[in-house]
Write a structure and sequence with these properties.
This protein is α+β, with helices and mostly antiparallel strands. The strands form two sheets. It has a four-stranded mixed β-sheet with strand order 3-1-6-7. It has a three-stranded antiparallel β-sheet with strand order 2-4-5, with no helix packed on it. A hairpin with a 6-residue loop joins β4 and β5. α1 packs antiparallel against α2, α2 packs antiparallel against α3 and α4 packs antiparallel against α5. The chain starts with a helix and ends in a 20-residue tail after the last strand.
């Protein structure tokens, strides 16, 4: 028994010996991408900076790459993208020392977007962390729920995808007058098992959505300007 126990320890050490360098390499590659992003940012190439920060996050999911992505969006005048990345930053680091500053900047960005005539459509889904299919032609990359889209008045179709669940779509109607914030909740369902050889036997439940509007207080007026256009990167 002792021999097998030591064999298990040896295999564990061997496994860690191979995995730790790989993790270290991905973190090192992420740091290089982040440094590249900061250089682009300093050169005012904010679109390239954003691409680099996002690539860094894919290599190593650090909250500071989300923060830097938000700052790049601010400089690109993409308030919606900035709100999205700031929110992800606070979700990844809920006790961030700059939390109040970030929340203040998010409120000001929201105020500017709402003052432009758009409405905030807050998307929530169960299970959480669904991939969002934004309306066709929507300019901002908003990837995961929960998140907000800032939409001009009109009708929209928004999709939700989670692995292992049926894809669902929600119809969203944004009125020219009315509440500043509309919350849309979707509950995704797993497909009902059927005969795999007969596509007709697969029963797919009807997607159901519930949505309700409520007014967001403290919305800025037409003179609101997004703060933090400069700021320091991590």
């Amino acid at each position: 028994m002792a021999r097998y126990r030591w064999l298990g320890v040896f295999i564990l050490i061997l496994t860690l010996g191979f995995s730790l360098p790989v993790l270290g390499q991905s973190q090192e590659a992420a740091e290089l991408k982040s440094a590249e992003g900061r250089a682009f940012y300093d050169d005012q190439k904010f679109d390239l900076a954003l691409a680099s920060f996002k690539a860094a996050f894919v290599l190593h999911p650090s909250s500071r790459y989300l923060f830097n992505s938000a700052k790049a969006c601010v400089r690109l005048d993409d308030g919606e993208g900035a709100v999205y990345f700031f929110e992800r930053y606070l979700m990844a680091k809920p006790v961030a020392e700059d939390r109040l500053d970030v929340l203040t900047e998010m409120d000001e960005l929201r105020g500017k977007l709402l003052a432009s005539g758009r409405r905030e459509v807050r998307l929530k889904v169960k299970p959480a962390e669904a991939v969002i299919e934004a309306p066709v032609g929507h300019p901002t990359e908003v990837v995961l729920a929960p998140a907000s889209l800032f939409l001009a008045p009109g009708g929209y179709i928004v999709g939700f995808k989670v692995e292992g669940f049926l894809e669902q779509k929600a119809a969203v109607e944004v009125a020219a007058v009315g509440p500043a914030l509309i919350t849309v909740e979707a509950t995704l369902e797993k497909p009902v098992a059927g005969n795999s050889n007969d596509p007709e036997s697969k029963i797919e439940p009807d997607p159901t959505f519930s949505s309700w509007p409520w007014v967001m207080l403290g919305v800025g007026g037409a003179g609101v300007v997004a703060a933090g256009a400069g700021g320091y990167l991590w």
